[in-house]
Amino acid sequence: MKLGFRWYGESDPVSLDSIRQIPNMRSVVSAVYDVPPGEIWPLESIERVKLACEKAGLVFDVVESIPVHEEIKLGGKNASKLIDNYKENIRRVAKFGIKCVTYNFMPVFDWTRTSLDHRHPDGSTSLVLYPDELAGLDPQHDDISLPGWDASYSQSEVRRLLDAYGELGESGLWQNLEHFLREIVPTAEECGVRLAIHPDDPPYSIFGLPRIVRDEAALDRLLGVVDSPANSLCLCTGSLGCVPTNNVPKLAEKYAKRDRIAFVHLRNVQILPNGGFEERAHLSDAGSLDMFAIVKALVDNGFDGYVRPDHGRMIWGETGRAGYGLFDRALGAAYINGLFEACEKMH
Ligand code: DNO
Questions:
Q1: In the predicted model, what is the mean pLDDT of residues 162-184?
Q2: What is the 8-class DSSP label of residue 224?
Q3: What tens digit of pLDDT does each residue of 4-25 get?
Q4: HSE-up of 307 (CA within 13 Å, CB side)?
Q5: From atom 6 of ligand 1, which residue's Cα is the shortest distance away?
Q6: What would the pLDDT profile of 200-232 be if each residue is shown by its tens digit?
Q7: Which domains does the chain have, with CATH numbers?
Q8: 3-state secondary structure of 245
Q9: What number is the average pLDDT over the span 121-127?
Q10: Measured between alpha carbons, how far apart are the two ends of the chain, in Å?
Q11: 57, 94 contact by CB (below 8 A)
Q12: The sheet that has 125-129: what strands, in order across it?
């Protein structure tokens, strides 16, 4: 496996020099952050990220994410122009050595939580989703802003988008995803890039918005649209694994065997009796997921792609971007190294 660490660019409080000191750290997972979704990434901006990583002794070969514009997901009138821009971005990052591009097809909001700094008994804080805090909120009528949501949307835009997605429904969203894949996968193939779709987080509808990349049936359907390693998955254990119906070790086994996992986000969650979940330390014992079983399934089935520790807790007084501090993600990386070393030696 090729170990990576997400870095939010020059404004990230976590420095590349600190990332470099994590044992076995190889790749930086990053993006161009100074361009709105849908636009073409300037070559200089991509080059700046690459040079900064190289200067720190790291490789920039995974992009997370090239965002997919809402018009593409909605199949709007500018979709085809925006898909052309997307293809151009794939070509551009490939020129700078990128091998894997992560993206998602979640309408309006990427991941959703009710709190980003829930305090645990040991004093650490983490992201959580408590369903009772979502119930009773109606974005059609209430002015709501949940942590992590894109603040650049006004409430009226959010309502317009909710209406548009309401009309589109799951089947319309699937059609638009299928069209998008048929368009962009050949470009990725030509450029030697593997596309890695991130599952919906959490993998169920929120506020009536269709969310479709959520379970084994959906992953099968998606991979079948274009049967190519360029059309692959970002297996995010915490996103898929926050519902008990997704058996993450089984998914890891199935898709690693078919060589359709390009990227893995490893983190643990504790599923709560009321259907919510709390993000926890990476260790199996800390949550509901058997991280050993997941890594073993990957290793036993020939997985050799990119892996990164996903969200960490905030510990040791660190402050910064929720889920993306240095300390707990570094502990996660050390644990991931241990799991892979053990599984590879046993294999
Ligand atoms: C959350 C991340 C996601 C992910 C995107 C990929 O922390 O895992 O925001 O980057 O969904 O497009």
A1: 97
A2: H
A3: 999 999 999 999 999 999 999 9
A4: 27
A5: 103
A6: 999 999 888 999 999 999 999 999 999 999 999
A7: 2-345 (3.20.20.150)
A8: coil
A9: 97
A10: 14
A11: no
A12: 115-119, 125-129, 277-280, 268-271
The CA-based angle 108-112-118, given to 5 degrees, is 155
Q: What is the DSSP letter of 226?
A: S
Q: Are 88 and 40 in contact (CB under 8 A)?
A: yes
In percent, how much of the chain has pLDDT > 90?
A: 88
CA distance 122 to 279: 14
Amino acid at 112: T
In this prediction, residue 166 carries a pLDDT of 93
E strands along 82-223, which residues?
100-104, 115-119, 125-129, 194-198
Q: What is the mean pLDDT of residues 243-257?
A: 98
Whether pLDDT at 175 is above 70: yes
Distance from the alpha carbon of residue 197 to the mean position of ligand 1, in angstroms: 10
Pocket test for ligand 1, best of 8, 86, 184, 198 (most atoms within 8 A of CB): 198
Q: CB of 90 within 8 A of CB of 191?
A: yes
Ligand 1 site, residue 85, Cβ cutoff 6 A: no
Q: How far apart are CA 236 and CA 271, in angstroms?
A: 15
Tell me the C-alpha distance between 116 and 137, whole Å: 18
Average pLDDT over the chain reads 95
Q: Which atom of ligand 1 is nearest to the CA of 104?
A: 12
Residue position matching structure tokens 């750290």: 25
- Dist CA 295 CA 44 (whole Å): 37
Which atom of ligand 1 approaches the CA of 106 most closely?
Answer: 11
Q: Provide DSSP, 59-107.
A: EEEEEE--PPPHHHHHT-TTHHHHHHHHHHHHHHHHHTT--EEEEE--S
- Cα distance between residue 323 and residue 303, in whole Å: 26
Which is nearest to 281 in space by CA: 273, 291, 294? 291
Q: What is the pLDDT of residues 132-165, one digit of tens each?
A: 988 877 777 777 667 666 667 778 888 899 999 9
Return the structure tokens found at 272.
Answer: 């709560």
The answer, yes or no, to whether any atom of ligand 1 lies below 6 A from the CB of 104, is: yes
